[in-house]
TrEMBL record:
Parts forming coiled coils: none
The name this protein goes by in its record: Cytochrome c oxidase subunit 6B
Record GO cellular component, one term: mitochondrion
Gene3D superfamilies: Cytochrome c oxidase, subunit VIb
Species: Piliocolobus tephrosceles (Ugandan red Colobus)
Disordered, as annotated region: 1-26
SUPFAM superfamilies cross-referenced by the UniProt entry: Cytochrome c oxidase subunit h (SSF47694)
């Protein structure tokens, strides 16, 4: 159902991905894939170092905003 409180909260916090000069064109699937892979590599590296994984949380909203819905 549209307009539920959880959807309104999600839309309120929605941000688009920042510009990445590695992927200057409008077609962004490779950028999405690269951010997805970087997210998992970051998490693995932080777990291996027994460090805080929260530094990798930046990647998830970025690659989710680039996912094509086709």
């Amino acid at each position: 159902r549209l307009g539920t409180p959880s959807q309104k909260q999600t839309n309120k916090n929605y941000k688009t991905a920042p510009f990445d000069s590695s992927f200057p064109n409008q077609n962004q699937p490779r950028n999405c894939l690269q951010d997805y892979l970087d997210s998992h590599l970051c998490e693995k590296a932080m777990i291996a170092k027994r460090d805080n994984v929260s530094v990798c949380e930046w990647y998830q909203p970025v690659y989710k905003s680039l996912i094509s819905i086709s």
